[in-house]
From TrEMBL:
Pfam families named in the record: Ammonium_transp
UniProt record similarity statement: Belongs to the ammonia transporter channel (TC 1.A.11.2) family.
Domain Ammonium transporter AmtB-like positions: 38-447
Subcellular location: Cell membrane; Membrane
Name this protein carries in UniProt: Ammonium transporter
MF-aspect GO terms: ammonium channel activity
PROSITE patterns: AMMONIUM_TRANSP (PS01219)
Membrane topology: Multi-pass membrane protein
Entry keywords, A to Z: Ammonia transport, Membrane, Transmembrane, Transmembrane helix, Transport
Residue stretches spanning the membrane: 36-57, 69-87, 123-144, 156-176, 188-209, 230-247, 259-280, 292-311, 317-337, 349-370, 403-421
Length: 481
């Protein structure tokens, strides 16, 4: 399909403006139809990832709280979708602002039409807003897995709106907005190592800390149980893997060779991460784990995210191996910390994001970034160690530490204050936890308990199972709760 002639935008750059008058001129002439088609497709792919997170978490969780996690992921789309329209996009991607956060010049999506976005001159504000809104939606959906088994729904919804405003928007601003301190420092983050993965991993750890341990939690073995529905885990992984092509590939913000390279390294890292985790589990149990492969693939995808548009294909193998090993062993950190982090969000996304950021500082290459046809000449990146730019690793470390610390501390503060508000106590009581979130908070179930009970009543010799459970790290079939 022909994109037609592309003309240079003639408006005032660097400030919010109306982006042209569609009654007087064809605003499409400033952009390529191919770029529009690619980014709109990637937007849909990233949206698909959010229910993918819900299915992934649901399969890992216990049966009695499985539906609640899917529901929360869907609610993240709705709540953050409104927040992004209301003021989120303006706070994160306004054309002017401080080194820390943007202003309200695009409040309510005003002045977001055909002006080139702060992300790229290849797409306008309106399309950039749509695409980045999906990143904003998936981040709290990742973090909210910490609610598993004991977190109330209403406070979680309020938390999503506040957290996205106070935590996600500033981190996204300083990482991706040209006015942000990390961007000016020289930090490299192609698709969300810090704003998405490190921030959500830190938030999940803080949420788990503030909620406290689940009933029956043991400081040595935790709360061992097996994933209640591995099929849901696989389904969620498939949604995420497919969606990640839009997540990383779309972050080139145009249909070009850099987008293709981002997709290639993303796929390689996922493949190698899955193989690495499976082999690590096999060495201990002599079993080939489906959940292990899915967990490893996600670890590889997380690790390559900040690097996808900066690193050559051969390095993606290293991202997959190091990401898989680091996240696998990081699942044990919750026992050292004494925090009941049920779904290992911190191990997968927090640790995986940090590993990916640091490896970016080593393997980032200027000639890979230049594949977009824009990052050349004066706009070329300095690269990482492969370009003998050794200070880049320090930039990546500073960005990682700042993002993790800010997200963890602010999440604790938000949850502490929410818990003081009447009606917004964070946790269900012990009786409600025993019943399960699906019954207590939703009144609906992922599975029909009534029919199961009837079957047990009419078939002699059958007894109800004493387990309805799942976790990344829980592997012992004899220990079910």
């Amino acid at each position: 399909m022909s994109s037609g002639p592309v003309e240079t935008y003639e408006g005032v750059a660097g400030v919010a403006n109306n982006g042209g008058n569609p009654l007087l001129e064809d605003l499409n002439r400033y952009y390529s139809a191919g770029d529009f088609g690619w980014i709109m497709t990637c937007t849909a792919l990233v949206l698909l990832m959010v229910p993918g997170v819900g299915f992934f978490y649901s399969g890992l969780a216990r049966r009695k709280s499985a539906l609640a996690l899917i529901w929360l992921s869907l609610m993240s789309i709705a709540i953050v979708g409104f927040q992004w329209f209301f003021w989120g996009y303006s706070l994160a991607f306004s054309h002017t602002g401080s080194a820390y956060i943007g202003n309200l010049s695009n409040f309510g999506l005003m002045k977001t039409l055909a002006q080139p976005s702060v992300g790229s001159g290849k797409i306008p504000d309106l399309l950039f807003c749509l695409y980045q809104g999906m990143f904003a939606a998936i981040t709290p959906a990742l973090a909210i897995g910490a609610c598993a088994d004991r977190g109330r729904m209403l406070p979680a919804l309020v938390f999503m709106f506040i957290w996205t405003t106070i935590v996600y928007d500033p981190i996204a601003y300083w990482t991706w907005n040209g006015n942000g301190w990390s961007f000016k420092m020289g930090g490299l983050d192609f698709a969300g190592g810090t704003p998405v993965h490190i921030s959500s991993g830190a938030a999940a750890l803080a949420y788990s800390l503030m909620l406290g341990k689940r009933n029956g939690y043991n400081k040595v073995n935790g709360l061992p149980y097996r994933p209640h529905n591995v099929t849901h885990v696989v389904l969620g992984t498939v949604f995420l893997w497919v969606g990640w092509f839009g997540f990383n590939g779309g972050s080139a913000l145009a249909a070009n060779l850099r987008a293709v390279m981002a997709c290639i390294v993303t796929h390689i890292a996922a493949c190698v991460g899955g193989l690495t985790w499976v082999l690590l589990d096999y060495r201990l149990e002599r079993k080939w784990s489906t959940v292990g492969f899915c967990s490893g693939a996600i670890a590889g995808l997380v690790a390559i995210t900040p690097a996808a548009g900066y690193v050559p294909p051969w390095s993606a193998f290293i991202f997959g191996v190091v990401g898989g090993i680091s996240c696998n062993f990081a699942t044990k950190l919750k026992f050292l910390l004494g925090i009941d982090e049920a779904l290992d969000v911190f191990a997968e996304h927090g640790v995986g994001g940090i590993v990916g950021n640091l490896l970016t500082g080593i393997f980032a290459a200027d000639y890979i970034a230049a594949l977009d046809g824009v990052s050349i000449g004066d706009s070329a990146i300095a690269g990482g160690w492969v370009n003998h730019h050794y200070i880049q690793l320090a930039y990546q470390l500073a960005d990682s530490v700042a993002g993790f610390s800010y997200s963890f501390v602010m999440t604790c503060v938000i949850l502490f204050l929410l818990n003081l508000v009447p009606g917004l106590s964070l946790r269900v009581d012990h009786h409600q936890e025993d019943i399960g979130l699906d019954d207590d908070q939703l009144g609906e179930f992922a599975y029909d308990y009534v029919e199961v009970t009837r079957s047990l009543d009419v078939i002699p010799g059958l007894t109800a199972p004493n387990s309805t459970a799942g976790s990344i790290s829980g592997r012992d079939p004899e220990k079910q709760v």
